[in-house]
Amino acid sequence: MSDKTVKRKQLMNIADKIATIGEVNSGAKTQTYVCRKYNLPLLHYSSTLLNNEEKLIKCFPYNSKVRKRQNYNVLDLDEVLLNWFKQQRNS
C-alpha cells in the first residue's frame, strides 16, 4: 500500500488571519508565499480570507483568539442565561 498523507484543514485564529491579509495587502509577500508559510491551500486563502476581510477586521478587537466567527440567534443571551441560572439555583 502506498502512504497517502491526508491534509487536515488548517484552523487559524482571527489574529493570524488578519496578519496574513496584512502581509499580502502591504505588498511585502505574495499570496503563494503566505499560503506556503501557513500551510494553506491557495484557493482557500483567496476565496475565504480575502472575501471575508471586512468581517474579520470588524470582529478582531472583540475576540482575536477565536478560531471561528459565531452568529447567535438569541439576542437576549444574557437575560436567558440569567433566568436559567436562577432556575438552577432555586431547584
Features:
single chain, 91 residues, elongated, mainly alpha
Give the topology.
Elements: H1 14-25, H2 31-37, H3 42-49, H4 53-59, H5 77-90
Helix pairs in contact: 1-4
First-residue to last-residue Cα separation: 59 Å
The SS-based structural class is mainly alpha
What's the average pLDDT?
75
* Sheet having the most strands: none
Give the radius of gyration: 19 Å
Oligomerization state: single chain
- Unreliable stretches (pLDDT < 50, length at least 5) are none
The percent range for helix content is: 40-55%
- Percent of residues in β-strands: under 5%
Element order, helices and strands? HHHHH
Compute the number of helices: 5
Number of strands: 0
Shape: elongated
Compact summary:
This is DNA-binding protein. It comes from Popillia japonica (Japanese beetle). With about 90 residues, this protein is an all-alpha fold.
Task: Describe the protein.
Helices cover 53% and strands 0% of the residues. The chain has helices spanning 14-25, 31-37, 42-49, 53-59, 77-90. Helix 1 crosses helix 4. The longest helix has 14 residues, at 77-90. The relative contact order is 0.14. This is DNA-binding protein.
